[in-house]
Amino acid sequence: MVGPAIVTEKRVAATSPSKDELIAFIQSVILNEQQEEMGPFYVLDLGVVRSLLDTWTFNLPMVQPFYAVKCNPDPAFLKEMAALGTGFDCASRAEIQTILSLGVSPDRIVFANTCKPESHVKYAAKVGVNLTTFDSVCELEKIKKWHPKCALLMRIKVPETSGAAFLFGSKFGALPEEIVPLLQAAQAAELKVVGVSFHIGSRAINYHAFEEAILAAKTTFETAAQLGLPKMHILNIGGGFTSGPKFTEAASAVKVALKKYFPTGPTTGLKLMAEPGRFFANEPFTLATSILGKRIRNEIKEYWINDGMSGSMNYLKYDHDDVICTPLANFGNNDVITCKGLETSDSTVFGPTCDPADTVLEVYPLPDLQVNDWLVFHNMGAYTSSRGNDFNGFKTSAIPTYLANSDKIS
Ligand SMILES: *Cc1c(COP(=O)(O)O)cnc(C)c1O
Has UniProt tagged this entry with the keyword Zinc (predicted)? Predict the structure, then answer.
């Protein structure tokens, strides 16, 4: 069973900081550090985290969010989410350990990896993480052996109509024709299949995909009932949400589909959960990078910055197509200023490594900048630092995070 996870208390929505406030905060960090050559750093605004949870609860009060840890496991961010009472989607022993170490009870964790190492299954049993996903007979055998009391969600592959940047169907989810044999295998092994999970794809754009997915889940609930399995009672609608104006659209698609296919909803004991990653992690993080080098070639200005594709920006090209980058001119001596109103020209921005693919921006309008000026990238929390590595000795793991509270930024 999934335990109670979500906040009941209604807080006043925190106001998101304006970009100007954040920039002012970043200026103060740069000035306070007074380092000759300062590396890249993140700012995490905890006020934004709180307001995102308010937005979620306002739009989808019936759906408990289990934050997908892989999206950004920054310790301060996870701590804030834990304090706010969300659940967590963990995919490995280490992720479970991290969440438990924050004092989160194991019933606020879903072990949402359909193919787990045996030792991780054993660990889940030991620490009392009692909800996981599966989509193969092999996984059922593993669970039967090491964690037979675990409640199971059958991950189903859903029609890939979300237009998402990243689809999961080639790797995850039972095909329609596999559903009956899998349910029968679980039944024969006396394992508890308590519900269904799916993922419409990360950074989805067409939310009618939720309707098709929720219909597929309803069909699976019915199939289980026909096979004589105990009534399913958990529906996990996965991730795929983005923050911003698209969220209300996604939430209403979910609500319409739930009304249509699960009309009795929670009144008959149905529990609704989701595994949003990007929705919570993207907006609260801002990345500040500084300029290491410059070249002018064919009248195009080319800049090198101190983070790039092997670090926080591995997905920037295709995952962050609305890159928002604020340049800051650094005159030293307490003088870091915005470049508002300056003339811009199409520029190229390279990352610091010797990989030619380490190109961050092309044909991007920037003013004339110099070494030690700054480029600040907004909405940089989702699948950024968590995917970075230490290639060429530029250490993503060493990028510090400064905390802001937008309630308190002034
Ligand atoms: C990655 C992942 C998520 C989070 O997806 P977002 O698109 O970031 O919301 C949720 N559930 C599972 C099983 C995942 O693998």
Answer: no
CB of residue 112 inside a 6 A radius of ligand 1: yes
**CA of 166, closest atom in ligand 1:** 7
Distance 66 CA to ligand 1 centre (A): 10
Task: Say how far apart CA 146 and CA 383 lie, in whole Å.
Answer: 32
Fold of 73-276: TIM Barrel (3.20.20)
Rounded Cα distance, 283 and 300, in Å: 31
Ligand 1 neighbourhood includes 80 CB (under 6 angstroms)? no
Query: Could you write out the three-class secondary structure of 273-305?
Result: EECCCHHHHCCCEEEEEEEEEEEEECCEEEEEE
Q: Which residue puts its alpha carbon closest to atom 5 of ligand 1?
A: 239
Q: Is 89 in the pocket of ligand 1 (CB under 6 A)?
A: yes
Helix 118-127 to helix 137-146 angle (10° resolution) is: 50
**Site to substitute for ligand 1 among 88, 89, 114, 254, most atoms within 8 A of C-beta:** 89
Task: Using the atom order of ligand 1, give the atom closest to the CA of residue 382.
Answer: 8
**CATH code of domain 12-45+282-407:** 2.40.37.10
CA 155 to centroid of ligand 1, rounded, Å:
12
Supply the residues annotated as catalytic. Answer: 354
* Contacts for 215 with CB less than 8 Å, ≥ 6 apart: 257, 260, 261
Using DSSP, state whether 256 is helix, strand or coil.
helix
The per-residue pLDDT string of the chain (410 residues; one tens digit each, 9 = 90 and over) reads 333 333 333 333 334 456 788 888 998 888 887 667 789 999 999 999 999 999 999 999 999 999 999 999 999 999 999 999 999 999 999 999 999 999 999 999 999 999 999 999 999 999 999 999 999 999 999 999 999 999 999 999 998 887 887 788 888 999 999 999 999 999 999 999 999 999 999 888 888 899 999 999 999 999 999 999 999 999 999 999 999 889 999 999 999 999 999 998 767 789 999 999 999 999 999 999 999 999 999 999 999 999 999 999 887 766 555 778 899 988 776 677 888 888 999 999 999 999 988 999 999 999 999 999 999 999 999 999 988 888 998 888 899 999 999 876 54
Q: Residues spanned by CATH 2.40.37.10 within the chain?
A: 12-45+282-407
State the Cα–Cα distance between residues 213 and 239, nearest whole angstrom.
12
Q: Ligand 1 centre from 376 Cα, in Å?
A: 26
Atom of ligand 1 nearest to the CA of 240: 7
